[in-house]
Amino acid sequence: xxxxxxxxxxxxxxxxxxxxxxxxxxxxxxxxxxxxxxxxxxxxxxxxxxxxxxxxxxxxxxxxxxxxxxxxxxxxxxxxxxxxxxxxxxxxxxxxxxxxxxxxxxxxxxxxxxxxxxxxxxxxxxxxxxxxxxxxxxxxxxxxxxxxxxxxxxxxxxxxxxxxxxxxxxxxxxxxxxxxxxxxxxxxxxxxxxxxxxxxxxxxxxxxxxxxxxxxxxxxxxxxxxxxxxxxxxxxxxxxxxxxxxxxxxxxxxxxxxxxx
Length: 261
What we know:
With 261 residues, this protein is α+β, with helices and mostly antiparallel strands. The protein has helices at residues 16-21, 32-48, 80-96, 121-134, 143-151, 159-167, 193-212, 217-244, 250-256; strands spanning 4-13, 60-65, 68-74, 102-113, 118-119, 139-141, 170-172, 178-180. The protein is built from nine helices and eight strands. Helix 2 (32-48) runs antiparallel to helix 3 (80-96).
């Protein structure tokens, strides 16, 4: 067994200690609804990433432990970058709809990753990037991963077309890092993009509102970042539906019911 050159995606659920604490009442009684809520969230992750169907993941490995998930694939895998980022966005959307956020990072490096073994410099790099640079509820990567995706493009794509596909999932942040844009770019990934989007934005709004109420400034700053991305987007949509849809329209009412932050 030798190191392989792999792309490593490390994801970590934010506030997991609080989510777990919420499953137990002060008197020690289990809050079964909250326990089931967390179980459903993890089952959703496992289903999206095919964790229990290893035979369906040629060249890709996925490991979930506690509140963390590691996805890796060979750096030469055709469209590997695009599909990994897309899967991560699906994970993020699934978690948001359950009131949960995650943070993470994507790196490239030497790695051994099997169903039983996971270690290597690539794993360390992804973990350090997540813990030291992601900072906010975002999954980050730098331009080198995008360039790698261009080199390992699908056979039916030119490199520039592969980059376009990858960039359709990303946004460049003020610190120069790219992040998977689950905040304003996830509409097309919903089951019913038109009807489900107001609910999705409302879930994000509720997460931000709760997070901003936390007194710990190291926690609140994460939700201020999300508010800065989300609130202008909601305002823009509200303006658009007010101009283009009549009063009493179901979709207009759904958007206008989302409280401002």
